[in-house]
Amino acid sequence: MQLTDLNWPQVHALSKDTPVVFPIAALEQHGGHMSLFTDSMLLGEILRRTSERLADRVLFAPLMWLGNSDHHLDFPGTLSAAPRAYLDLLGGLLENFIQHGFRRLVFINGHGGNDVPGKQSVFEIRQRHRDRNDLLLLFATYWHLGAKPWEIEPQLRQRQMGHACEWETSMMLRLAPHLVGDLKKLASVPFGNPFEPATRGWITKDRTVPGHIGDPQFATAEKGEILFRAFTDDVVALIERVIRWDGKDWNG
Question: Which of 61, 70, 72 is nearest to 24 (CA)?
Answer without folding.
Answer: 61
